[in-house]
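Re: [ENG-882] Designed sequences occasionally contain unexpected residues at chain ends

Forwarding the minimal case from QA. Structure tokens:
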């Protein structure tokens, strides 16, 4: 079944148009923000997201997914407008306000798109529809990355910010054409209804959150160690732009793949994705030849995404089984918050043993990913 683009997809594409992304740090430093203040702003965003996950999920379940998605687009617009203003007036106070709004915007989207699309689709089309939504954003990212050089040469950072602001205005307008909420869909019959807190006693839920945290850490490793690996291979850091574009394009193959899979095949694909991802991480960590390493850089994000889609589907099934379909956004937000907590704990722990380097981290994450996905594969 071929899925058609709608207003949600268009908004996703427009949100992917972040023309200033390659110089996001420079946007702050040119406005007088020090490196320490930059990290403080990132911490403010992270803390806002962590604190706002559950409240935003509760509000979403009460006012509806479509209304929350519209509010999310307006918050995204406000965040970019504040960033433009902060860059113009060079004010740390305005940068702080932008960080808070950006964090709230992330919270309002967390769990909302998942829940909205889950009800809009069938069991066979849900993951492909999620992939389509994500790919629209990736397409926007590709366009903005290609356009960045010319726009920067023409008008510098102000033009990059202005272009992003125009895209956000268009996304906010598109959001008013998002389809109304569909009736609640329940894939798995409820076997209990002991409240949202009961999810915390579900072993599959914890395994899904650990796997999700592991996938997030793997993504962080990609962001931080790809450039380091290029340096080890005596390759210019300029290769990164091509690598990012290549793996972004390749990752967009997830939608046609998921569209041809049946729900019964999701679990085997999870295990296959985990084994392939772990193998690629081992090759990346240990290999010293440019060609195989560059190939793993392109393939790894795609294989990790296959695991991520299964975890998303599993979380929704667990919510159905727990009798919490009416509170789907709150439940997904709770899972995301705990997953973020696991990620933060791993990152804090890693700070003390950072000197162990690339090989240790890639091999460790590869092992944990295979184990967690293997247990999820066995446990029904």
């Amino acid at each position: 079944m071929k899925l058609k683009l709608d207003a949600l997809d268009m908004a996703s594409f427009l949100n992917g148009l972040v023309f200033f992304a390659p110089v996001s740090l420079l946007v702050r430093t040119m406005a007088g923000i020090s490196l320490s203040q930059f990290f403080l702003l990132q911490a403010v965003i992270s803390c806002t997201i962590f604190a706002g996950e559950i409240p935003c999920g509760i509000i979403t379940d009460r006012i509806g997914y479509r209304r929350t998605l519209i509010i999310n687009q307006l918050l995204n617009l406000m965040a970019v407008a504040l960033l433009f203003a902060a860059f113009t007036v060079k004010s740390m106070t305005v940068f702080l306000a932008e960080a808070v709004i950006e964090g709230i915007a992330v919270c309002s989207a967390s769990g909302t798109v998942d829940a909205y699309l889950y009800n809009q689709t069938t069991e066979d089309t849900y993951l492909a529809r999620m992939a389509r939504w994500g790919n629209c954003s990736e397409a926007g990212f590709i366009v903005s990355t290609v356009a960045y050089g010319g726009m920067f040469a023409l008008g510098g950072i102000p033009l990059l910010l202005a272009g992003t602001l125009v895209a956000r205005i268009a996304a906010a307008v598109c959001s008013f054409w998002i389809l109304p909420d569909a009736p609640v869909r329940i894939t798995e019959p409820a076997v209990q209804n002991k409240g949202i807190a009961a999810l915390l006693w579900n072993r599959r839920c914890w395994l899904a959150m650990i796997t999700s945290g592991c996938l997030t850490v793997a993504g962080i490793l990609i962001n931080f160690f790809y450039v380091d690996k290029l340096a080890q291979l005596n390759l210019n850091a300029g290769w990164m732009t091509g690598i990012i574009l290549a793996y972004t394009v390749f990752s967009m193959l997830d939608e046609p793949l998921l569209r041809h899979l049946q729900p019964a095949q999701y679990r085997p694909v999870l295990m296959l994705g985990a084994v392939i991802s772990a193998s690629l991480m081992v090759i990346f960590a240990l290999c010293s030849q440019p060609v195989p390493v560059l190939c793993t850089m392109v393939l790894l994000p795609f294989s990790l995404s296959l695991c991520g889609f299964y975890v998303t589907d599993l979380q929704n099934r667990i919510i159905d089984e727990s009798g919490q379909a009416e509170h789907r956004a709150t439940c997904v937000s709770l899972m995301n918050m705990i997953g973020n907590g696991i990620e933060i704990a791993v990152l804090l722990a890693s700070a003390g043993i950072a000197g162990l380097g690339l090989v240790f981290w890639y091999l460790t994450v590869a092992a944990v990913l295979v184990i967690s996905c293997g247990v999820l594969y066995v446990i029904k």
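QA comment: On inspection the terminal residues look reasonable. The mean pLDDT is 85. Proposing we downgrade this to a documentation issue.
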